[in-house]
Amino acid sequence: MHTVKTQPFFDQNPGTSGLRKKTKIFEKKNYAENFIQSIFDCAGPIRGKVLILGGDGRYLNKKIIQKVLKLAAGNGFSKVIVGKDGLLSTPAVSNLIRKHKAMGGIILSASHNPGGHDGDFGIKYNVENGGPAPDNLMRAIYDRSKKISRYFLAKEEDVSLVTLGIQIIAAMQVEIIDSVRDYADLMEELFDFTAIRHAIGRGFRFRFDAMHGVTGPYAHEIFERRLGFPSGTVVNGIPLADFGGKNPDPNLVYAKERYDMLDKGLDFAAASDGDGDRNLLIGKGIFVNPSDSLAILAANARLVKGYFSGIIGVARSMPTSTAVNYVADKHKFRVYETPTGWKFFSNLLDAGLVNLCGEESFGTSSSHIREKDGLWAILMWLNILAVTNKSVSDLVRLHWYTYGRNYYSRHDYEGVEEEVAERMINNLRMRLTDLRKTRIGNFLVKKADDFIYHDQIDNSVSVYQGIRILFQGARMIFRISGTGTEGATVRVYLEQYEADSAQHDKDTQTALSPLIRLSDEISGLKLSLKRSRPTVIT
Ligand code: VG1
Ligand code: CO
Q: In 3D, which of 207, 217, 222 has the Cα closest to residue 392?
């Protein structure tokens, strides 16, 4: 064991989902070591404990895995369980933490951000319930990183990540496991694979795009080997260090080829992001908005084996559309509104108050783990499509017919100067009192505030979670992203409810255009950001 002297870095402030920076920053001497040691210093007594370790395969993944292993041995873990080749998806890590009653898990990923030497890298820490470290722990880790002066290291050879089984470094066991098996087994427990096989027999055609992220091996095993979809169903299935030079971000911009592919006779197409926690769903001629997906899953959960007993409650991040609230009104369950980021769902899930959670940012999952789960969401849809024998489009339209349609869109302004973004949000914040009860065009402001979340389980309070302006049947929300690595990203979320089914066939941007104009009028966004249009519209 060696104690290595180090100097703190002052920029290791984790955002919405772990520490995310340009890859080159993580290559600085001691940068990764400092942050990992800061996690170990804050995460609780380590001696004799188990740690789960894996990443999404991006550039630096294997190198940092070796560093974590030596630091883990230096800090007294009894065992680290690592996915073969250093690969584990975020949901798989969450599952393994729970299964092995581990102290926690380290996930090396910057999720949907681009990879490679010129891309991004990230480190996430998940705690013993399998969920992302809560805010107070992340703050403690950040504080620690600003004071750190040493880390503990076992000076050992690199571990082979290829051979399954146990190796020993210092006094610590390193077990290399099959990255896929436990996760695939869990999916098989939750879903009716036989029903899906019958749908395949009826000619149901599906395609999954792994975007060269971590889900390739999982998808090959689950969709092609266990379910029997023809080989070739999974595309871009080999994890690559730079994701093939593309953004592993499953939205309509970066996964557009999938959407176009639907013309080629597919019934359903889906994609997941770099670390496997997001999902994109596309049916013939229809993109399923993630907020709608949450509502549709809530309305149909009882049709699925693992969820026969129904929905206990649903949690959604505040910017996620209120579509699921209309389902809740009818089916009598409660909807909890939390700040952006999966970490806020854990307490509600642990307390048994909810068993379905969702975010507008292509994240959906249930109480089976404590992370969002891309393949889970896709299998949930496959299962519902199989037992109803309806098309994606029919299911969505029927849902709108029953509950009304929540037109919804997110407009992102990327690469804005941080100060400029902060100033715009602050100006808006100062105007909130004036905005209350004012009428602007056809819109009467019902409520205007800066979202504050009181966690009813641990009584923690999270402030500044987004400016929201609520109208009758419509909302707009403004916040700054906590996952970017270059400047600031301003997100504007727009939602308009439409009960009349004769009005359900509009193009989303057209339906939202009065609200879009109003959001600019109220915030002065385009002028202050000096932008004429958003960078990305989803
Ligand atoms: C974004 C999404 C948020 C999600 C987070 C992590 O955060 O909006 O809903 O939980 O990414 O997702 P932000 O702060 O940039 O808006 V992932 O797939 O990057 O773990
Ligand atoms: Co992700």
A: 207
130: left (phi over 0), alpha (psi -120 to 50) or beta: left
**Among the bound ligands, the one closest to the CA of 341:** 1
Per-residue tokens: 330: 């009818």
Radius of gyration over every alpha carbon of the chain, rounded to an integer in angstroms:
23
Active site residues: 111
Question: What is the spatial distance between Cα 205 and Cα 385, in angstroms, rounded to a whole number?
Answer: 12
Contact of 52 with 96, CB cutoff 8 Å: yes
Look at ligand 1, atom 1, and give the residue with the nearest C-alpha.
483
**Residue 187 to residue 388: CA distance in whole angstroms:** 20
Residue (of 388, 362, 164) closest to 282 by Cα position? 362
Helix orientation angle between 181-190 and 374-388, rounded to the nearest 10 degrees: 30
Helix axes 181-190, 90-99, angle to 10 degrees: 90
DSSP, collapsed to helix, strand or coil, labels residue 309 as: coil
CB-count exposure of residue 398 (10 Å: 0-12, 13-18, 19+): middle
For residue 373, what are its two tokens?
A: 């789960």
DSSP 343: G
The closest of 7, 21, 181, 13 to 89, measured between CA atoms, is: 181
Q: b/e for 13-30, b at 16 or more Cβ within 10 A? A: ebbbbbbbbbbebbeeeb
- Exposure letters 288-298 (e unless 16+ CB within 10 A, then b): bbbbbbbbbbb
Confirm or reject: Cβ of 215 under 6 Å from ligand 1: no
| Long-range own/partner contacts, residues 147-150 (CB < 8 A, 24 or more apart) | 147/8, 148/6, 148/8, 148/34, 148/37, 148/38, 148/41, 149/5, 149/6, 149/7, 149/8, 150/3, 150/4, 150/5, 150/6, 150/37
Q: Which of 16, 413, 479, when mutated, tests ligand 1's pocket best, judged by the most ligand atoms within 8 Å of its CB?
A: 16
Structural contact between residues 242 and 121, judged by C-beta atoms closer than 8 angstroms: no
Find the angle CA(176)-CA(179)-CA(180) to the nearest 5 degrees. Answer: 145
Half-sphere exposure of 281 (CA within 13 A, CB side): 30
Is 110 within 8 Å of 122 (Cβ atoms)? yes
Mutate to test the pocket of ligand 1, among 124, 275, 483 (most ligand atoms within 8 A of CB): 483
Measure Cα distances from 522 to 174, 442, 447 in Å: 56, 14, 14
pLDDT along the chain (538 residues), means of 10: 95 91 96 98 94 97 97 97 98 98 97 94 97 94 97 94 95 96 97 97 95 97 98 95 92 71 81 96 92 98 91 97 97 96 95 97 97 98 97 97 97 93 93 86 90 94 94 95 86 97 94 94 88 90
Question: Cβ atoms within 10 A of the Cβ of 256, count?
Answer: 10
Give the predicted TM-score (pTM) of the model: 0.95
Tokens of 160: 């082979």
Q: Identify the residue whose tokens are 């009104």.
A: 329
